[in-house]
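INFO batch 0412 | record 1 of 1 | parsing
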Amino acid sequence: MLAGWIITGVIAVPFTILAIVLLNGKGAFLIAGFNTMSEEKRATYDEKALCRAVGWLLITITVIMFLFPLAISLQQMWLFWVSFIFVFALTIGFAIYANTGNRFRKSLTPGEQTPTGEKKPMSRGKKVAIVIGIVFSVQICIGIGIMIYQGERDPRVYIHPESIQIGAMYGLTIDKTDIDEVVLIEKSMGEIGIGTRTNGYDSGGQALKGNFLSAEHGHQLLFVYAGSSPTIQITGAQGLNIFISYRDSETTRNTYRLLSFTVTGE
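INFO prediction complete | emitting tokens
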């Protein structure tokens, strides 16, 4: 849980430094899009106003970022998603705002004036570029959101006539004949030993899914909430070593009884 706060803090420090620079009207060369313009075109913009606007955007995003580890600590995923959506909407909204209506411009060049003196409408190419950027950003955010959702949700265990299926990120189906033992350990995975993640999902040491390497157990496949106890351990053929736990301890115990009865008939 502490790891989430540390990671957020590490990200927030450079964001804050950059925001302070921008709020002082400096660092325009760091703004994507603006730094690729020609000098002649950059001269038509109010750099200080643009820098300050981007600076306030970064400050706002930095503050909201701390709601992510807070949501995980409080186990309130609705807060995580509200914060995530707000950051996404704020970023896209600012991009649209900054790229429409000739905002942050000191004056219009002669070619951007209509015969009546009104502002020239945005070109089709610029509109297409904004739409493409928004679509691309939405796809990235949806992908990240799905990954986080799958990583944070509790695993689901399905019993089939010849196998047991674990439905989760990095889930799998196990033949019953490959299972040697199902035991309930009255400890959390954090106490048992998480090991080192080799290929999996880790939300700052809490929700853990995937492959981990432990000095005591070797390769292990985790579907756990690291701070919750008890923990189910499934061992079997070909180095099968799986750990399962839920946020709710009673759910873990019920799942253990179901798995134990399925494997041993007792």
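INFO post-check: The beta strands are 156-159, 163-167, 172-175, 179-185, 196-202, 207-214, 218-225, 231-236, 241-244.
INFO record closed
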